[in-house]
Specification:
kinase, mainly alpha, Helix Hairpins, ATP-binding, single chain, flat, 2 domains, 4 helices, binds adenosine-5'-triphosphate
Length: about 130
C-alpha cells in the first residue's frame, strides 16, 4: 500500500489506516525500551488483579489506566520523532517539546500508581489479615 495514494475510499481506506496504525504499534513495541517496560508492568498488574480476583469495575479502571499509559507513551515517542526530524541541533524549543511530552507520561504514571494503590491495597491487606 502506498502512503501517497489519497484516492482510497471506503473499506480499503479504513483497512489501510488500520494497517498503518498497527505499524506504529509494532514500531514502539520493538524499538522503545520505555514501552517494553510499560508492557511488562501492565502484564504484572493484570496478573495480580487476577490473583486477587478484583471486581469487574476495578478491572475496567485498570484497563483504562493501562490504555492511557500506552497511548501517552506512543504520543511522547511521536513528539520525540517529529522533534528529531525538525532539528538535529540543540534547540531550547526542541528540549521544551520533548521534556513536556515526557512530563505528560510521568504525570499520568504518577496518578496510575496512586490508582493502583487505591485498588490493590485493600485486597492485599485483607489477604494478610
Ligand atoms: N534537539 C534537541 N535540542 C535540545 N534538547 C534536546 C534535543 N534532543 C533532545 N534533547 C533533550 O535532551 C535530553 C535527552 O534527550 P534524548 O534525545 O536522549 O532522549 P529522548 O529523545 O527524550 O528519548 P529517547 O531516548 O527515547 O529518544 C532531554 O531533556 C531532551 O529534551
Amino acid at each position: 500500500m502506498d502512503f501517497r495514494d489519497r484516492n482510497r475510499r471506503g473499506v480499503k481506506r479504513l483497512l489501510a489506516a488500520f494497517a498503518f496504525a498497527l505499524q506504529g504499534v509494532r514500531d514502539v513495541v520493538t524499538h522503545e525500551k520505555n514501552m517494553q517496560l510499560h508492557l511488562i508492568i501492565a502484564a504484572a498488574v493484570l496478573a495480580l488483579a487476577g490473583l486477587l480476583r478484583l471486581p469487574l469495575l476495578h478491572w475496567v479502571l485498570l484497563l483504562l489506566v493501562i490504555a492511557g499509559v500506552f497511548a501517552l507513551e506512543m504520543m511522547n515517542t511521536a513528539v520525540e520523532r517529529v522533534v528529531d526530524l525538525c532539528t538535529e541541533e540543540f534547540h531550547p524549543l526542541a528540549k521544551r517539546a520533548k521534556d513536556i511530552a515526557a512530563g505528560a507520561v510521568f504525570m499520568y504514571c504518577l496518578f496510575a500508581v496512586v490508582i493502583g494503590i487505591i485498588l490493590f491495597l485493600p485486597p492485599i491487606l485483607r489477604l494478610l489479615k
